[in-house]
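thread: overnight batch results

M.L. [08:02]
morning all. the overnight job finished for the chain we discussed friday. pasting input first so we're all looking at the same thing
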Amino acid sequence: MTADAPDRAAAPPVSADEFRNAMALLAAPVAIVTTLFDGRRWGFTASAVTGLSLSPPLVSVAIDRASRSHGAFVLAKEFVVNVLAEQHRELASRFARLGPDKFANHTDSTFPGTSLPAIDQAIAQYRCTRQAVVPVGDHDLVVGEVSMVLRDAARRPLLWYERGFHAAVRL
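M.L. [08:03]
and the structure it wrote out:
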């Protein structure tokens, strides 16, 4: 071991609760990720969406392997990342819960030029083509190449912080 390397044997493992509590202090944008697979609309709320590359433009979305939507997202050719605005709190909660049809009572909206489901009045939407699925812990990272972006920056983004939804304040 060098002087610069930490002594990992001396540090106790981080418990799931300790990690969850610490991650609650990391503010994250909230998105609903949507796709169409086997003729059915699928979607889930995600706060683990990350830009990976500018050339080509890539994003990753983390999805729990225990999610009912998991199979659709790791197999679907395309998906849409819908970055939510503050008025989407209820919708974000609905898509985060287990339920039969998260799209029930939701107006049919599609990403322009496609049949991919989309969320109206999102502040940004990224149409993605699945490039890879990378297993990481109890989740998979679905990596998508962004083929089109729509933006409406006039709205205030919805954030997840301390286990609750908050609107970002522009300074």
